[in-house]
Amino acid sequence: MAEQLHCGVNDFVCYRNKSWEDIVTAQKAVDKMFTSFKFLLLFESWVPVVDQNVVHGQLLDMIVNTSIPLKPLMIGTVTEEGLAFVYGGWAKPLTTSLYIEAIFIAFPEHAFKILERYPPDGAEDERPLMSKLITEWVFVCSTRIYAKHSPSYLYAFGYPPDFDGWSLSKYCKGHVCHGDELPYVFESAWFNITDAGRRLSQNMATYWTNFGKSQNPNQPVSLPITWPRLNQNQTYIYFQDPIDIREDYLKKDCDFWDSIGYKL
């Protein structure tokens, strides 16, 4: 990034003198570069920073080892978080050989275990399988660890949007992609969704505003379904039509990923 901006690596004055157009142009150039065999660094190139100090360490390790009380959270994922990223990154079908190669590059120490758990099916396109793997490892299962160590209300959103408005809709039509819950939480797509979608949106908005007022999604405005706090049975709310309460979301898969770990 510094090279693209013609700045020294630690020359923050130089960075701040650049226009936003310069920053965007440099970022686009960097995004096209293969800079690491750790693919999450390609996906998320910026690290946490507080007051210009880089926050070192894995977030999950910091949460597990913290001694201070954690704030209550509403935390969760959509059911196909990885789909848009995989299809956006691989415009062409992913062959079996490329799928296997990607597993060995990303998980050199655990590749055989992962391929045994998520074996390629020999189809012409392994992107659906890769999407499932990315959804679980990057999003769902690491979120579960975070939720276990805080007073959390856990959710999964599994309602395919009943409106057309995403730039990646060619991949996500009929699926539940990253960010698809947001128009329902903020009631921002009511003008073109179905009655079922509006009902779901209204309920979700009420849970969220309740939590903002009381740190409890069930108060002060009551709803037909009580959203229980996460417990030993890993109880969570599943947002669909109708909404229901379930237990142990992807437990076996997440137990597997817990044994592998989430470090880059």
Write the element-wise H/E pattern from the N-terminal end onward.
HHHHEEHEHHHHEHHHEEH
Radius of gyration, whole Å: 21 Å
**The first-level CATH class name:** Alpha Beta
Strand content: 5-15%
Counting copies of identical and different chains, the oligomeric state is single chain
The span between the termini is: 21 Å
Strand line-up of the largest beta sheet: 3-4-5-6
CATH architecture verdict: 3-Layer(aba) Sandwich
Determine the number of helices (DSSP H or I, runs of at least 4 residues).
13
Which shape, going by the Cα principal axes? globular
Domain count, please report it: 1
Q: Give the strand tally.
A: 6
In CATH terms, the superfamily is Alpha/Beta hydrolase fold, catalytic domain
- Summing up helix and strand content along with how strands pair, one would put the structural category as alpha/beta
Q: What labels would you give this structure?
A:
single chain, 9% strand, 45% helix, 6 strands, Rossmann fold, alpha/beta, 264 residues, two-stranded antiparallel sheet, globular, four-stranded mixed beta sheet
Description:
It is a single chain. This protein has a single domain (49-260), classed as Rossmann fold (3-Layer(aba) Sandwich). The model has no long low-confidence stretch (mean pLDDT 88). It has helices at residues 2-5, 12-16, 20-31, 39-43, 59-65, 83-89, 96-106, 111-117, 127-148, 169-172, 182-185, 195-214, 251-260, and strands at 49-50, 53-54, 73-78, 152-157, 235-239, 244-247. Helix 6 crosses helix 9 and helix 9 (127-148) packs across helix 13. The longest helix has 22 residues, at 127-148. It is of the alpha/beta class and 264 residues long. The protein has 13 helices and six strands. Helices cover 45% and strands 9% of the residues. The strands form two sheets. The protein has a four-stranded mixed beta sheet, sandwiched between helices.
